[in-house]
Amino acid sequence: MHLILLGPPGGGKGTQAKRLQDEYGLVQLSTGDMLRAAVASGSEIGKQAKAVMEAGKLVSDDIVIGIIADRIKQPDAKKGFILDGFPRTVAQAEALDKMLTERKLKIDAAIEVRVPDTMIVERITGRFTCAKCGAGYHDKFQRPKADGVCDACGGREFVRRADDNAATVQSRLDAYHAQTAPILPFYDKKGVLKVVDGTLPIEEVTKRLRDIVEGSAVS
Ligand code: AMP
Predict the structure, then answer these.
(1) Which pLDDT score is estimated for 219?
(2) Which of 49, 75, 91, 137 has the fewest Cβ atoms nearer than 10 Å?
(3) pTM
């Protein structure tokens, strides 16, 4: 099974991809996570990506296409994957198509998690993750059960992304509308585009995604 989660930054793609990965034994491939790891490691790619990411702009197609091309060759990707944050431009969608065709694979569903811009700022500026296990939380929508303690691993240190601030959100939304939204028709033409209302509670969004995944699996 090969899925793509599409939708604006802060729309819940990462949260939902983590849930689906656990339930269906798929691997979550987040180019944002890979780029943040590259920045943290100080690699050449990280150095090139850092300022672009902090400005809320898109990293070059060549870099992200190269990262994904390497990543889908890894053994764990054989069991199927969920792309989260990739593709983000028409050129990336076309490159992905080529990579998959060469491997005789195809996208089973490209799912747009739809959330209006007006809800994005609050969602993005409130989110944080456990520094130890990466579990995601939100100041308002998903607080840890005990304040300051991660539900998943008991960790007590939390981090916020450098680009999750009100100043950067607008550029990220602009990049989404200008460069990423135009790939929706690309998947619609292939007959694999599905839309889920991302404003619903997290559990309800997961339920609707499950219905799509299970429907795609039998078709
Ligand atoms: P994300 O974690 O998906 O919100 O991505 C964080 C940042 O990483 C984005 O704002 C971009 O600067 C960069 N990025 C992640 N994925 C891509 C991609 N597929 N193409 C270009 N830039 C990306």
Answers:
(1) 41
(2) 75
(3) 0.92
